[in-house]
User: Which sequence fits this backbone?
């Protein structure tokens, strides 16, 4: 194996959407950094069975603006 080809593997803090936290090892960021999750198994519809609209960065607003006139008949 070639030396210096793998990223540094260190401990980080992960904060779930409900505020619970845990430590894990990852290549993310620097040692001791915090990763805040927007979606996790406690809030994702695939695990909860409930649909929920998550608008990250205005994607829904951008979609609605782009396609607002489709299907509207002009009189």
Assistant:
């Amino acid at each position: 194996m070639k030396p210096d080809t793998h990223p540094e593997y260190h401990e980080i803090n992960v904060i779930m959407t409900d505020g619970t936290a845990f430590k894990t090892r990852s290549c993310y960021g620097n040692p001791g950094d915090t990763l805040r999750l927007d979606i996790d198994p406690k809030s994702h519809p695939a695990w909860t069975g409930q649909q929920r609209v998550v608008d990250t960065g205005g994607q829904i607003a951008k979609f609605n603006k782009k396609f607002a006139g489709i299907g509207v008949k002009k009189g």
